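Exam prep: given the inputs below (a chain plus zinc ion), describe the expected output before reading on.
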Amino acid sequence: MLPTKGYAAMDAGAKLQPFSFERRSVGPKDVLLQIQYCGICHSDIHQARDEWGGAIFPMVPGHEIVGTALQVGSDVTSVREGDPVGVGCFVDSCRTCDACKQDLEQYCEEGMILSYNGRDKNGEPTYGGYSQQMVVDERYLLRIPKNLPPEGAAPLLCAGITVYSPFRHWKVGKGHKLAVVGLGGLGHMGVKIGRALGTDVTVLSHSEHKKSDAQRLGASDFVLSTEEGIFSKLANRFDFILDTVSAPHTADDHLGMLKTDGTLILVGAPNVPTTVGAFSLIAKRRRMVGSLIGGLKETQEMLDFCSKHGITSDVEVIPIHQVNEAYERVINGDVRFRFVIDLESLS
Ligand code: NAP
Ligand code: ZN
Ligand code: ZN
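Solution:
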């Protein structure tokens, strides 16, 4: 076993604090990675505060993980020592169900094994990337393109793939008008990747001060969602809407902005149900769909796409002892646009 230092929430109301635990020894198919950077996703906060239910404590959050392969098992073929590697939201799945066979491990019928707040095949809790090192089966590792700075690449492992996957699945691209609702970690990746796919992007935000950032990121328009009458002004305008909002809200206002046959892609995951009135959908044959991160093959495709287009996340790098303050700032929308923890600060 490998003694490891990290930061954990000891229960749902607690601040994160230093925590020591053990990683498994490196098996034949395993890679030991030294973690360099780990992003702070809003899902980390939802889970550390048990807002979705079923949380396992102590919890070491973190699923936007980038590091270097320190040691590889005897049967590992895809990774060599020293390679830059990444880990996203899951570290295992059943590997045999229809979803796993179709490279959709995130929808594994037995349930994917989350990188943290999950249980591995022996029933032991999994611990995430707010830590020094991790042992992962090579099948569940991603290759980080060498031209991407590791701190900017880390958030691609969740925020990046969460927007890329539905864009590809629903064929979002050239000629489409896309609205991105909520300019946070996911939202700013939605603008960058949406632009790279050729869409015309409008940002809908409740934060006026984000206007210049939206334009700098490539949006052609910025709309303040708190403006009086804004939803009637924007009625029937968009082919696609990406809803990344982390707080409770209704879908009706957003659905009304879609053209006939338009699609609302829901990725934000508030802790109370998002309400929908039937007429918002049936009046114009609109669709409302959900999407959960992405499978390994598609995540690698997204990393290579970002490498080709020079896309990374806009990050604010912090030492780990500032994690609790960072959580408060994320909740208050005070981050441009992702906090990333430098794990060297643990040693
Ligand atoms: P984030 O950085 O905090 O961004 C969320 C954005 O939502 C904020 O920047 C803000 O944008 C908007 N927002 C927040 N509170 C609001 C309020 N009261 N009213 C209106 N807008 C509000 O969070 P994130 O990391 O991007 O994650 C966003 C959501 O997606 C979270 O619920 C997270 O759990 C979920 N998520 C889902 C998946 C998936 O696979 N589906 C993956 C990762 C994360 P403006 O200031 O611009 O309005
Ligand atoms: Zn995430
Ligand atoms: Zn499966």
